[in-house]
Write a structure and sequence with these properties.
Elements (H helix, E strand, L loop, with lengths): L4 E4 L2 E7 L3 E7 L7 E4 L2 H17 L21 H19 L9 H14 L4 H8 L4 H7 L7 H14 L1
Antiparallel strand pairs: 1-4, 2-3
Length: 165
């Protein structure tokens, strides 16, 4: 965290077996490669505070190999339950702020919001692709092509300005 970077080295998935229920399985990322994501200072401060609070519960929760978002015993949180928990927070926030002031959003939608805002602000596709962990920028372009239509006019105007000097 001192460098303002987060390493993503593993993922967790739910494996459902007929008659045997389900279990959480840790594995590599989808691409099989770890990636490093740069973080802004506000996010680093929030993660430091979160880590400090967890350290008060148990030192095992803050060791270097500990999961960032684990249960209190250090095990993986169930992804589907974590998403439902987030949905409950959004529902309460919508009721408190007024339903029309806050859209319904799923946890995974935050990933799409992140990418869309960065692309719309002109962050290079390659950079956004690396942050998302896509295997190639082509995947990012395909998924987020809706961000680009209005940008053609801006590109034409910028190019004309460059030519005019």
């Amino acid at each position: 965290m001192d460098a303002g970077r987060l390493a993503i080295r593993r993922s967790v998935g739910v494996v459902k077996t007929k008659g045997a229920g389900e279990r959480l399985v840790e594995g590599p990322t989808k691409t099989g490669r770890s990636r490093v994501v740069d973080l802004d200072s506000g996010t680093v401060a929030a993660l430091r505070a979160y880590r400090a609070a967890r350290g008060l519960l148990a030192l095992d929760l803050v060791r270097d190999s500990a999961l960032v978002l684990s249960n209190f015993d250090g095990t993986h949180r169930h992804p589907e339950r974590f998403s439902r928990h987030f949905a409950g927070h959004i529902a309460r926030a919508r009721r408190a702020l007024g339903e029309e002031r806050l859209p319904v959003i799923r946890l995974h939608d935050l990933r799409h919001t992140h990418a869309t805002l960065l692309l719309a602000d002109g962050v290079p596709v390659k950079v956004v692709s690396e942050r998302l962990g896509h295997a190639s920028a082509t995947i990012t372009l395909t998924v987020y092509q809706h961000v680009h239509p209005g940008m053609g006019r801006e590109a034409a105007d910028r190019f004309a300005a460059l030519l005019e000097g």
